Amino acid sequence: MKMYRIYINDTVLIIADVLPGGLGNYQQVDENDFNFGQFYKVAKGGPASINVLLTKDPKQTFKKMRRSFLVIKAAGGVVRNDENQFLFIFRKGKWDLPKGKLDEGEKTKKAAVREVEEECGITVSKLGDMLCKTWHVYEEKGQVVFKKTTWFNMMATRQALIPQLEEGITEARWLASGDFDYIKENTYPLIRDVISLLEV
């Protein structure tokens, strides 16, 4: 099965060639009438929903969809410490994971470590494998942006956290996997899906 997940605040748009299992309540989108610009306008302020667009060629459909918009590359980390706790940040009223845009000419892995260290005031001791890639759509200066974030597993010793206030991060916290339900109550669908990939 080929599939893309695009996140717009609390809305998820899934582009796939086969209906994924375990979705719960979802709405199917008609491929023939679909216009991403119109969909985005409704989705950005709408209630939480899962929308599925079935198509023979998800990759081509997705490439065509994002062609008209600016694409920004970002990288972030899921950091585990030596006490098997995970690093979360609190930004703009929701729990999140540290991430940020690549600087010009910067490699994805280097950007991921840099962003985690800058946003949380820690030193990463080990960069692990790539965990996943996500697509998040939002507006910046009136322009619709597709942000592609590459997420990596990371390790760090348990150390004091210093949230990067100038980036709107008001808290950084080490949390055990047993606290994931607490995080999921006040986070984005994108972060919930990243968390669900962790082997705890």
TrEMBL record:
For the keyword ATP-binding, the answer is no
Q: For this UniProt entry, which residues form the secretion signal?
A: none
Single GO MF annotation = hydrolase activity
**Family the entry assigns:** Belongs to the Nudix hydrolase family.
Q: Does the keyword Ribosomal protein apply?
A: no
Superkingdom of the organism of origin: Bacteria
Domain Nudix hydrolase span(s) in chain numbering = 70-199
Q: What is this protein called?
A: NUDIX hydrolase
**Species name for this entry?**
Paradesertivirga mongoliensis
